[in-house]
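Page header: ASSEMBLY MODEL / two components / 666 residues total.
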Amino acid sequence: MTEPLLKVEGLKKYFPIKSGILGKVSNCVKAVDDVSFTVQEGETLGIVGESGCGKSTTGRMLMRLLEPTEGVVTFDGQELTSLSNNDMRKARRDIQMVFQDPYASLNPRHTIEKILMEPLNVHNIGDPKERKKKVHEFLEIVGLSSYHAKRYPHQFSGGQRQRIGIARALMTNPKLIIADEPVSALDVSIQAQVLNLMQDLQKELKLTYIFIAHDLGVVRHISDRVGVMYLGQMAELANTEDLYEKPLHPYTQALLAAVPVPDPDFVREEVIITGDVPSPANPPSGCRFHTRCPFKMDICSEVVPVFAEVEEGHSVACHLYEESRPQ
Amino acid sequence: MTERKTILDVKGLQTSFFTDDGEVPAVDNVNFHIREGEVLGIVGESGCGKSVTSLSIMGLVPSPPGKIKGGEILFQDKDLTKLSEKKMREIRGNDIAMIFQEPMTSLNPLFTIGNQLREAIKIHKKDWSKDQVQERAIEMMKLVGLPRPEGLMKEYPHQLSGGMRQRVMIAMALLCDPKVLIADEPTTALDVTIQSQILKLIKNLNERLNTAVLLITHDLGVVAETCERVVVMYSGKVVEEGPVHTIFNDPQHPYTKGLLESVPDMRFKKERLYSIPGNVPKPGSIKTGCKFAARCEFAFDRCMTESPELYQTAEDHQTRCFLFDPKEVQSHDRTVIES
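Prediction written out in full:
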C-alpha cells in the first residue's frame, strides 16, 4: 500500500469548562477523543455523525484552525502538528477548506474578485495580472462567468455562493480539500449541482476530499470510504459499500435505519435506539454508546472498546466483534 | 377506505408581501384540502411559499408587509380569512395548532415548561380548576413520551435536549385536542435518530387521536415515510398533488420528477446525480408563463407565455403542466404517431 496523503493518529481536542470567579478549570468537553484514520491520495473520505460528535472539530484540527490537545497529523510526509504558525500557513496552500454556510463565509464587503484573489495574495502566487486571469479562469471552472468577478456576495444565490466558496478553496491548487457540510444549507435541486461539480473537479484536478456531513445519502453518494463518529470517537470506518450494506457497529445500524427514505413502499428494518446523545462533558464510561445500545453487555459499561480492523479495511470499536478480530 | 370528510379547505389562497420593490406574491392561488385524520405533506424548496401557506391558515402572516389578498380558508364552514382577530384567537391553538422548526425559539426561555403548558390550557379552558390544568399538562407530557413529567414541569427550556423540546411543543399543541395540527419543518433542526422518534410520535398521535396533520417539509424522505397525500409547491403555486404512492412512483410534473431524481438515496449509489439546471427563482420574479419553464427540459413555446392550470391526470392526482393538458396530449400523440 502506498503512503497515505494524510495520516491522523490519536487526535484529541479537550475544551476546558471554566467555573467560579477565578475561572478554574473544573472539567473539559472531550469534543474529539483519540481519533485515528488515514486518507489516500485521490479518494474521498466521508465523515458522518450527529451534532456534537466532533466531526467538524476534527476537520478544523486537520488544518490547525483549532490547535489539537494531543495527536499527530502527517500530511504528505510533513508533520503538521509540530510546525510553527508561519510554516503552517505555508502548508495550508495544499490543504483548503469549504465551509457550510456560504452566506457567512464570504465577506459581504468584498467583490468576488477580491475574495478569490485573497488566497493568491497570502501565498504570494503570481503577479497581479496572472492573479486576475486565474480568478476568471476558476470562476469558469466552477460554472460561473468571469463577469461575475465584479459583483458582491449578496448578488448571488446560495448555490452560486457555494460555487464561489469552492473556487476560493481551489485558487492555490491544493491537494486536499476539507469540506465541512458543504451542501447542507442548499436546496435539494441545487445540492445535486454542487455535488456533481465537486465530483467533476475531483476527476479533473485529482483532488482528495474529506467530506464532513450529517446526511447519510449525500455521504454515500460522494465517498469512497466512510467514517462514523459518535461522541468524539470513531465508531466505524469502512469502504462505503461495506459500511452501508453490512454495518457492524450498532450505532451505524441505528443511524442507517433512522434515515427517512424517499420511497413510500420501503419497509425499514427496525433498530430501536432510544434517548438522546449524552453530554460530551460527561461521556458514559466504557463504550460511549452503551447507554443507547440495544446489544449492551456487562463489559460495555466498563471497558472502552478498541478501534481496530475486523475485516480488511473495515474497522469498528465494539465489544461484539472483539473475538472475530485477527490476532 | 371510506370517504373521509374534508376538514380544512384552502381555496384560491393568495398571500402577498408588499415591499419597497413592489408586490411579491408568495402564495399564488393555492388550492388544497385536508381530510379528517389524514397526514398531508407540503413539499417544496426554499421560497416556494409552503411556510407562508401555513401561516396564512393560522392567521399569523405578519401584516404589514404581508396580506391575504384573496381566497378562502374554510374550516368548519367558517372562512378563517374573514374572522376577527378575537375569533381567530379562539380557533388558534384550540382547533388548529401549530409546531415550528426550532423548538428553542418557540419556547420562552424565562418560564418553566409547566408554566408555559398551563398558560396554554388556561387561555382556552377558562373554567378549569388548577388541579385539572395540572393534570391535563402531565397527561399530555406522558402522551408524547416525556420521562418524569412532574420533574420536567419545573425545568426551563435550556435544560432540555432538542428532541425533548420538540416533544414539549407537540404536547403544548395537542393540549386542547385540535382537529388539525400544522407541523412546519418539525424535525429539520434535529438529528436523524431523534427525527425518526419525533416522526413516529406524530404519526402515532395522528392515529390515536385522529388529528389531521399538515406536515410542511423540504425532505422527500420524511414525506414518503409519514404522509398519505402530498402537495408539491414551486414558486408560490401547487404544481402537483396526489397520493404519496403515485407521487413517488409515478410523478407527473417535470419538477417533481427532477426533485426526486436529484436526491441521493442512502440505499444505493447513483453514478451521477440528476440535477435540475438553474436556480430556485425568487418569489415573484417570474411574471409570465409556467414558473418552472426556464428550468424545464420539456418546455415549449406555450410554457413561456401561458400559465398552466392544474390538470387531472388520475383520480385524486393533479398536475400543473401543459404536457397533461388534454389538448396538448392529443397533438403530442399525433406527432409521435407521425414520426
